[in-house]
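[[Per-residue structure]]
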Amino acid sequence: MTMLFVVFTLLLLAGSARAATYGSSGFSGSAEGWTVKSATCSIPVTCSASGGYDGTAGNPAGSLAANSNILVNLAGLFKTTVVAESPEFKVGDGGNGTLRLQRQFVPGTLLSLAPNATYTVALVDKTGGVETKSITETIAAESGFTGKEGPVALVAGHVYAIKVTAEVASTVVGLSLGTASVRFDNVAVTGPGANPGDNGNGGDGGKGGDGGKGGDGMSDVRLLSLIQSSLGSAQMKGNRLFVKAKCPAQVGRSCRVSVQGLLKKGKPATTKRTAKVAKGKAKRLVLKVKPAAKGKLAGRQRLLFKETVRAGSAKATVYKRLGLIRR
């Protein structure tokens, strides 16, 4: 009886130590309940702001976008502000946690105005009536999605929401038409626990996108954050590309990695290669250039690669441009 009591107690303690992920949004197919609270521009009529689901871009495709729209040629500076908020979610255990996301800023046809994007991500405590900033950053143009994170403090049983405020402002006076976009993807709050990527039972957590948890405790969101820099440089020799793929040691198990070179998203430049890579190790993959793409690669200095990694039941996909080293 004593032994059974000890085992039962240890199981309870182990369960309570698990981390939980809340408000996880991968935006795969929809805005997943996020709403735009406001969208304004400093120059009425000639300029507008908008926000919502963008199915054309993401990691993988699908993201929340804050758009700056210049309707007629401008002769002055502009500033747009878009505020969006996630669905509410209730946390289980209290303590210190982490807010994670990926962001991208594409100035589009407004590049001549040299716009900058400043965004702030805050955790709103609906129960306590407190809003706390977690991430603030100003960025120039970036084609890829970059991961960022900041600290948060959670109170057990409180209801929260994630609030994103994105501002885009021109720094050069000029004439231009078009749209600039700040996009956000793979947003989640990780609660306290031994494994920061665990997406355990989080009570009334928000609707999940890429935040599903595998049976071994590795979540899609956690895996995505670990593989951001898992591809090395690409070497090209004749009609073959040599790419080094890694399986981060933090994954805790071997990875199944698939890599393919792309002329652009959806247009393959090479064959796809899949290999099993041991945790903490790297393996060189050999990709064959497709005959139709060989001429298009002749003068390229960089190439887009799609990498999909599976670890247990967790899966994540990243896109990364690598320099081509010819030999």
